[in-house]
Amino acid sequence: MPLQRLLGFILIIATSTCFAPAEALKAQKNAAPTEKNSVLWSDPGPIGSRNLYYGSGGEEGEPHGPIEFIDEDRSGTSPKLNVRDREGNKWKAKLGEEAQPETVAARLLWAVGFNTNENYFVQDLKVDGLPHLNRGNEFVKKDGEVHQVRLQRASKDEKKAGTWDWRRNPFKGTREFNGLRVMMALISNWDLKRENNAIYIDKDSGHKLYEVSDLGASFGMSGKSYTDALAKNNLGAYKKAKFIAKVTPHYVDFNFPTHPPFFYAFNLPFFISKVRTRWVGRHIPREDAKWIGSLLAQLTSDQIHDAFRAAGYTAEQVDAYTEAVQKRIGELSEL
Predict the structure, then answer these.
(1) Helices and strands per DSSP (H, E), number in the chain
(2) Per residue in 80-109, pLDDT tens?
(3) How confident is the model at residue 262 (pLDDT cuts 50, 70, 90)?
(4) DSSP helix/strand/coil, 130
(5) Mind listing the pLDDT tens digit for each residue in 184-231?
(6) Residue 116 within any structural domain of the chain
(7) Contact 81, 93 (CB under 8 A)
(8) Which among 11, 115, 136, 153 would be 20 to 30 A from 47, CA to CA?
(9) HSE of 150 in the Cβ direction (CA atoms, 13 Å)?
(10) Model-level pTM?
């Protein structure tokens, strides 16, 4: 079988289960959550007063040195360390290109009411007792100072209880879940695998808190071409990517995520996994997209600026990213 026909066959098989008919989508819309005490979204209150520079942890939650090395976390694709601050708080330090976009993405989701982790970006972090690492030594200076770090707090009030799947969760079909789908398109977070979604148990209330816990693959595009394939933290790609693909009286399709270039088909499990998440950005009820757009529209330019400033972007990058995000919010406002 010629390669082009083979790849086409693979795409047909992979996408055959991706799109539900309109009747199924309507049924999902009317479905009630089946799991009690589960929380995906909470009313954020006055969005315009939220501090996006410090995010959900606030200024008082910032880590303070000295920072002590605990061990290296070898999970995932980005190099990570477990560290401890002077108050004894534990933090997961992520190094590399995901540190900046994840800091911003978490702030934007938190601003409109979604559960997120507490994180802070540090341009240069001195880590005491840092050994030679298995991954990420290119970000470490000779004096043990680590360049461009995202610090995520390990909460004492919450316990991780597992992961959740985009297809199977208590919120599917609800306005809040559809709003989260729109948020993934807004920030272009194309890495939608199950391992990046966490369930935490709040120790006081017993509530199950659902969140997208890894947002590092944001602010790029999941383009079909070789140069734009699965880009993250890429201003040029993010600005170039089309946001809304189609609008009907009843639903909205976003140009996200697109299927990866066909050369990824040589890693067939990876290729199929990406193709099967394409539905996340498609057939979203128009009213739900308008709802999350109305929340985002309450953010000021200064707040969006602050989110990018908090991630260590240059003044020029802050302006350009802010303009691109506001353009997308404007498209939602016009629905």
Answers:
(1) 9, 12
(2) 999 999 999 999 999 999 999 999 999 999
(3) low
(4) coil
(5) 999 999 999 999 999 999 998 999 999 999 999 999 986 655 455 568
(6) no
(7) yes
(8) 153
(9) 27
(10) 0.87
24 inside domain = yes
What element of type H or E holds 39? strand 38-39
Within a domain: 213 = yes
What would the pLDDT profile of 122-143 be if each residue is shown by its tens digit?
999 999 999 989 998 999 987 8
Cα within 13 Å of Cα(53), Cβ side? 8
Give Cβ neighbours of residue 238 (< 8 Å, ≥ 6 apart). 188, 219, 220, 221, 231, 321, 324
Closest CA to 121 of 102, 142, 140, 137: 102
Which range of residues forms the domain containing residue 235? 3-56+155-333
Strand ranges of the sheet holding 158-163, from the earlier edge strand across to the other edge: 38-39, 208-212, 197-202, 158-163
208 part of a folded domain:
yes
At position 46, the amino acid (one-letter code) is P
Residue 202 pairs with which residues in a beta bridge? 158
Helix H or strand E encompassing 146: strand 145-153
Residue-level length of the chain: 335
Kindly give the interhelix angle for 315-333 and 175-187, rounded to the nearest 10 degrees. Answer: 140
Radius of gyration of the chain (CA): 20
| Number of domain units in the chain | 1
Q: What sections of the chain are H helices per DSSP? A: 3-15, 22-30, 99-111, 175-187, 235-240, 268-275, 286-296, 301-309, 315-333
Residue 155, pLDDT score: 81
DSSP-derived 3-state class of residue 245: strand
Closest by CA to 40, choosing from 127, 118, 139, 109, is: 109
- Give the pLDDT confidence of 299-322 residue by residue, as tens digits: 999 999 999 999 999 999 999 999
Structure tokens at 317: 């990058």
